[in-house]
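agent> fetching stored inputs for the adenosine-5'-diphosphate docking request
agent> found them:
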Amino acid sequence: CWTNSLLNLIPTPHSLSTDECFCLCSSGHIDDLYPYFMRHAKQIFPMLDCMEDLRKISDLRVPANWYPEARAIQRKVIFHAGPTNSGKTHHAIQRYLAAKSGVYCGPLKLLAHEIFEKSNNAGVPCDLVTGEERTFVDEEGRQAEHVACTIEMCSVTTPYEVAVIDEIQMIRDISRGWAWTRALLGLCAEEIHVCGEPAAINFVTELMYTTGEEVEVRNYKRLTPFSILDHAVESLDNLRPGDCIVCFSKNDIYSISRQIEIRGLECAVIYGSLPPGTKLSQAKKFNDPEDPCKILVATDAIGMGLNLSIKRIIFNSLVKPNINEKGEKELDTISTSQALQIAGRAGRFSSIFKEGEVTTMHRDDLPILKEILSRNVDAIEDIFVSLSQVDGMYFVCNIDDFKFLADMIQHIPLNLRSRYVFCTAPINKKQPFVCTSFLKFARQFSRDEPLTFDWVCRHVSWPLVPPKNIKDLVHLEAVHDVLDLYLWLSYRFMDMFPDANHVREIQKELDSIIQVGVRNITRLIRATETNAPPGTNPLSNQRRLGPSPVSPRRVRGAPKAQDSGVEGWQLDKSLGSRLVQEGLLTPDLLRQLQKEWSKVHRQEEEGVKLVAGNNKTKGNKKKKK
Ligand SMILES: Nc1ncnc2c1ncn2[C@@H]1O[C@H](COP(=O)(O)OP(=O)(O)O)[C@@H](O)[C@H]1O
Ligand SMILES: [Mg+2]
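agent> prediction call returned; pasting tokens
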């Protein structure tokens, strides 16, 4: 077979040594060529020399062995299985509070905060660790025996008596599932309490075969039953106190809350990109029996992590816009698991709404919802097997976001470690301002100039004022994310991001400013409508008269829905155009970025000329293209 390869590799005559020429010209046996072939092949493919090492480090077949500390102890795994609102987390947390030491691993900052507060209120000192925040209850900064964290941040080397892994079904998530896998295999705790959908039981049990650990399953039933109604709501005139209308796009949220206001009712609004303080204050307003606001308009962000006194869940639609791998917008009918998670918010154990109800806004959607809710939740194994690229039950997580960030900063000279850390930043790539800020941070960092508080304030134009319209509000949400990015980086590069405390202070202030905006969201919507040029509706959405269009194809792992408002752009291979096409950059921002980039390039090129002959700089120049 190497003779075949030889045909592809045959060197041009001027690159051959005398020996090789001799070999080719005389009529020796073809095997005589082998050493020369190998020498040449290794010149072209230097990795041939380290194939064995490469094979070893790419052997991902037994992930359980990556966690020797956990393998050194015998762990007991307890699976708390049941639907939303069945008391799974509650029971696991009781055990966590009673233990000498414990770690809670949750999917959201909001949930980590909730457990942090619950634990400290119960007299069990507990620290908080998220990507952007470390709070130690001990004044001198010593670690407490208990810690509540976002799952990505849990330690797999610290020993605990009890560990709680919440929402285990997220182990199937294409982008974040790795963190649940790591926690499940790697946490060093005598007892691991896993909470989640029963659909994950078999999968977790099988995974534990590889570690030789048994799984005890405890089943839970809903504390508050919910029923699917036989009629749709059909009109916003039929709303009642305790109703929550669930939408899958922000524009639907805006338009519905405006229509509710026209009917003289007050509503609270919750969607994913709001800061945590704002979400909590909206939830509080809706839950407060004394507050006149008794209607909630929300996205599926309510599926996890917020306690809400909802009587009736009304699905405004059953399709969720997604962006597929090609950057095209696609509408997917929600899955049974998603529908159950949302429907499960109807009825709350400790509220006046003991029994929940679920229905749709549009009549034609109701039979579809009933059908979705009657299906069994996909068992998790199926998804793993179909995607498996490694061994049996595992697959390699999606690294699109990582690659996206790597593309964005590839022209910036950074050493490998810093570049890697930057690329793992958890940013929302759909927000143009966050992306441009990420670039600016990386550029400033590469110049070895610390990102001071003053610098950040200039960058985000602090101080900021309450939003006057929806565009302002969206921008403030993005600024909040940029400050999150700063805080996240500050834990990884303390000397380069030295002002985390100040940044945290203004981020809190910003959360309050956003809260003011969201409290008056219908006024912002009105202002946006009034300022729009005639004939356009800035809040136009996919409202329709008929039922949700049902897309036949479901794309796994597509990024979350988002309303780009940018359409009709030609597909182009350049990153900039792709960003615009995906709705991640506005054309204006792209132009501004191009201007900035060309300026920086010019400056850098000039720099290169000045220090020509310096190998390091040449290397940098080569990287840019
Ligand atoms: N035994 C209980 N006593 C008091 N409150 C409970 C009990 N079980 C659950 N709750 C409350 O009911 C709500 C839902 O419980 P939770 O554990 O969050 O459900 P799940 O994790 O199954 O979604 C929470 O507000 C929780 O505090
Ligand atoms: Mg729970």
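agent> quick read of the result: The chain has four domains: 2-57, 64-219, 226-383, 400-519.
agent> awaiting further instructions
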